[in-house]
Each structure stands twice: as structure tokens, then as C-alpha cells.
Design goal:
Layout lengths: L16 E5 L4 E6 L4 E6 L6 E7 L9 H8 L9 E3 L5 E8 L4 E2 L7 H6 L8 H11 L11 E3 L2 E4 L5 E4 L7 E7 L3 E6 L14 E6 L3
Antiparallel strand pairs: 1-13, 2-12, 3-11, 3-13, 4-8, 4-12, 5-6, 6-11, 7-8, 9-10
Length: 209
């Protein structure tokens, strides 16, 4: 089973936590080895941006680039390990009711939104920086996100074609955490020229096996 671990799970895990994340906001979520991270798209029509930094060394972080190489794929699938920039498995995807997630697109910024005709708000990168600052977390590098619930097709000519989500309320993923880390989950706006859902996300860190 994808959610089982070969390494021992600590005997005592921290209490479970749940947080809702409104459009244009983010949450920092602590998770320990052996816990389960579930992210739910409550209205089923938006993407979520996921970051993670290891607790032992914030210079080691969840890397979509290294995950692509490690798994030889630009899409996530069941049993796939998401790895750090040091190619260490950080978590494994065990349950997925959405079936489309992206490892290619960078975070939106205020400038990229303006170029896309949306000059009225912060991008994902600015939201991330503000969230880290408010939590007094100083990360030495800001990586690209893993874009959950975002379908991007690579055409024969190399073009990247994002597709707007068909509403599926409650779609979610669940991953087993393999390294103690801090996750940042963002309900950010997109600069991809597709419909931008405004519903909330729900993130749950649980202990059930």
C-alpha cells in the first residue's frame, strides 16, 4: 500500500490538526514522519500550491524539479515519491480523488498576474513570502511549488497547456510524510489564462494508518 512505510513510525505522534485556507491566503502546517497530510479542494474548482521545508535544515525543501527526474514524470501518480532538492523522499502519494497535479508551472507573482490582465492582487510568491515572514521563518531559498489539482498537458510542439478544472467538490490527496517538515499550503491566484476558482482549501495532518 502506498501509505505504508518501510521505516518505523514514531510511537507517539503530535495531535491531529485541521486548517481551512481561504482564497488568497496560506497556512504553515507542521508535520512529522509517519503522519498523513490531506489537502482537500472544498469547492473542487481551484488549484493549490504546496511547499515543504525540512525541519532539520530549511535549505532542504520539496523540489518539483528533482521529483520529475527521480520519478521520470511531470505528473504525480499513486505511489509516487515527492523528493527534496537532495533527492530524499519527503512524502509519498497514497490516495488521490483528483488525478491531475502539476510539477512544471512556477508560482504566480504580482508582475505575472498583471501581464495576464489581473493587476489587482498578490501572486502566490508574495503570499508565500508574507506567510513565512509572519511565522518568523527565514528560508534561504524559495523553490517552485507543487501545483495540486492543476492539469497541464505538454503538446507535441512543446507547448504547455493548462486546463481549467471541472468542478468536483471535495476532491483531495493524501500523502504519507517521510521527513519532519513544515508545509506551506496556498490558495493562490493563477496567471495561466484559465478560470481561477475562489473556494477554500482544507488541510489535515492526521495520524491514522
Amino acid at each position: 500500500m502506498p501509505l505504508l512505510m518501510k521505516t518505523p513510525i514514531p510511537a507517539e505522534l503530535p495531535a491531529e490538526t485541521t486548517v481551512e485556507i481561504a482564497h488568497g491566503t496560506a497556512a504553515v502546517i507542521e508535520a512529522w514522519q509517519g503522519q498523513l497530510l490531506t489537502i482537500e479542494d472544498m469547492d473542487g474548482d481551484r488549484a493549490a500550491q504546496l511547499y515543504a521545508f525540512t525541519r532539520a535544515d530549511p535549505a532542504e525543501f520539496l523540489s518539483p524539479h528533482h521529483t520529475r527526474v527521480f520519478s521520470n514524470s511531470y505528473r504525480l501518480g499513486l505511489g509516487m515519491r515527492l523528493v527534496t532538492n537532495r533527492r530524499r523522499p519527503l512524502m509519498v502519494l497514497g490516495r488521490d480523488s483528483a488525478g491531475a497535479h502539476d510539477l512544471l508551472m512556477p508560482a504566480s507573482t504580482r508582475a505575472s498576474l498583471a501581464q495576464a490582465g489581473r493587476p489587482d492582487g498578490q501572486g502566490t510568491r508574495e503570499i508565500l513570502m508574507e506567510t513565512l515572514g509572519a511565522a518568523r521563518l527565514d528560508m534561504p531559498k524559495i523553490p517552485d511549488p507543487v501545483n495540486l489539482f492543476l492539469d497541464v498537458v505538454v503538446e507535441r510542439d512543446g507547448r504547455l497547456v493548462p486546463t481549467a478544472a471541472i468542478a468536483k467538490p471535495g476532491r483531495s490527496i493524501t500523502c504519507r510524510v517521510l521527513i519532519d517538515c513544515r508545509f506551506v499550503v496556498i490558495a493562490g491566484p493563477n496567471d495561466l489564462g484559465i478560470a481561477d476558482g475562489r473556494g477554500p482549501l482544507r488541510a489535515l495532518v492526521g495520524n491514522a494508518l
